[in-house]
Amino acid sequence: MDSARRWNGWGHPDTDYPLPAEALLFLHQKLGAATPLPEVGLDAVVETVPPSRVEAHPLLDTGAEPRIRHARGQSLPDWLAMKSGLYGCFPDAVAFPENRDQLVELLTLAREKRYCLIPYGGGTSVAGHINPRQQPMPVITVDMGRMNRLIAIDKESQIATFGAGVAGPALEAQLRGQGYTLGHYPQSFELSTLGGWVASRSSGQQSLHYGRIEQLFAGGKLETFDGCLEIAPIPASAAGIDLRELVMGSEGRIGILSEVDLRISPLPEKEAFYVAFLPSWDQGVAVVRRAAQQRIGLSMLRLSNPLETYTQLRLAGHASAIALLERYLRLRGNRVGTGGAEGATLLTFGITGSRSQHGATLRQLKKLIRQGRGAYVGTLLGKRWQHGRFRFPYLRESLWQQGYMVDTLETCTPWSNVTPLMHAIETSLREELADEQEEVHVFSHLSHVYPQGSSIYTTYLFRAAQTPAATLERWQRLKQKASRVVVEQGGTISHQHGVGKDHAPYLRTEKGEYGVQRMAQICGLFDGQQQLNPGTLLND
C-alpha cells in the first residue's frame, strides 16, 4: 500500500497544479462563482468501515485504511465519495501478492470460500472498474503493486517480461537501464500499471510511433480458477484464434495477469514536441487527417478545437506572454477565438526516432501546415506540454478546492463522423443543466489519430451543487446524456478508458445483443459463479 499517495484524490500530496488568478477569473466569468463542497478526514471515514466478512488468512489485510484506499478509483463519482466519506461499500480485505504462487493461492482461496476478487493496479480507473458493490459474497481487492519487477529481457528479440503490477515510471526506469523503452504513456502513466493497460486496452500519448497496447502486448500469463492461460510471445501466428485478444479488454472478468511479455524498442536517438496553429477547426482536421493517411512518421498528433485552444491559453496564466503569442498569430492569419466555435486550433505533435528521420518528418508536416495556412511556432510550447504532460490530473484538486467539477469522456469514430459527433457531444453536455440555470463549459481535442478516423477527448466543467448527492446527480445527467449520444451517433463507448461499470449499460448498442451474450458466455467459461470483478464490463 502506497501511503505516500493521497487517500482521497489523485497522486502525491507534494505535487500540485496551482490555478492561476487569471484562470479563476476566467471560470467565474464562464460558470459563475462556486462554493467548495466540505471534506471529511481519513479518521472519520475509518469509523464507517464495517467489520470484514472474510476469515483470517496470511495473504489478507482486513485493516480499515487499506480497505478505504482500495475502495474507489479516480472518476468524479469516486472523488465525491472519497471527499464526502460516503463510500457506500468497501472491500472486505486487500491482498498484496508478491509472486505468482501467492496469486494462485488467492484464486484457490477465493474459489473455496466463495470470495469475489477485484484486480487493482494503480487505482486510476475513471470508469468504475475497481469499485466493489454490495453483494452476498465477500470481496477481496487484489493489489498487484508488489509484482513489479523486470523478470527477463531478450534483447535480440526485443521482448521484455514484467510482473503485471509494475507502474509506468518503474517499468520505463528498468527498461531504460538496459537501453530500451516501451513508449506507452497514457495520461495516468505516473500511477497506472502494465496489467491495467492490457486489461483495459490502454492507449499511450505516443501510440502513432510505438502503438497502442494491442501492438505492445506480446503474451504472458493469465491466472484463472482452472489454471494458467499462457500465451507465448510469438511475433505472428496463423494458429487459430489469437488468445491475446481474449485477454486484452477482459477487465479482470476471466482471470488476473501475473506476467506480461512486451515488445520493446531501443531508446530513440531524438525526440521532440512541437506546436503549430491552424486558422480553423476544419483546416486543422484536414492537416491531421492527411498526416495520418499519408502515414507521416510522427509519434503524436493532438488537435485542440477552438474552444479548448482558447481555454488552455486562459488557464495557463502568463497573460503578457499569451498576449504576445496571440499578436504573432494574428499577423500570421491565425486569430485565437473568444470562447466560441470559431478561431484558431492548437496542434501539438511529436517526432520520435532516428536523427535522420526526424528532420524529414518535420519537413513533411510543416508542408501540410503551410498548405493549411497554419503558423508553426516551434518547440517552446511543445516543451511545456512535455514537461506537464502527466500533471493535468492534479488540476482537478485545484478546481475542486474552488468548487468546480471537471470530468472527461472519450470515444473514437471514422473521419466522416468526427466533427458531427464532437459537436453533438459538446451540445448535449452544454445544454443538459439548462433547467437548473447552470452553465457547462465544454471543449474537445483529437488525441489519437488513425488513417480511418480519430478519437475525440472531451472535457467539461461545471459548478458543484450544494451537496455531494446533488453534485453527483448533475454528473449522472451529463454522463448519461453524452454516453447515449456517443453510442447512438456512431462512436465507441470507450477508446482508451475501458468499460468498467460506468460504461457497461451502453455496451449493447455498440456490440449488439448477440455480441454481449457471447461475451457473457466467454466470461462464464472462466468464472461460472461470477466471482471475478462482477458488474464490470458486463452489466450482469
From TrEMBL:
GO biological process terms held by the UniProt record: lipid biosynthetic process
Which domain of life, per UniProt? Answer: Bacteria
Sorted alphabetically, which SUPFAM superfamilies does this protein's record hold? FAD-binding/transporter-associated domain-like, FAD-linked oxidases, C-terminal domain
Binding locations of FAD: 119-125
Coiled-coil intervals, chain numbering = none
**Family the entry assigns:** Belongs to the FAD-binding oxidoreductase/transferase type 4 family.
Q: What is this protein called?
A: FAD-binding oxidoreductase
Organism, per UniProt? Answer: Aestuariirhabdus litorea
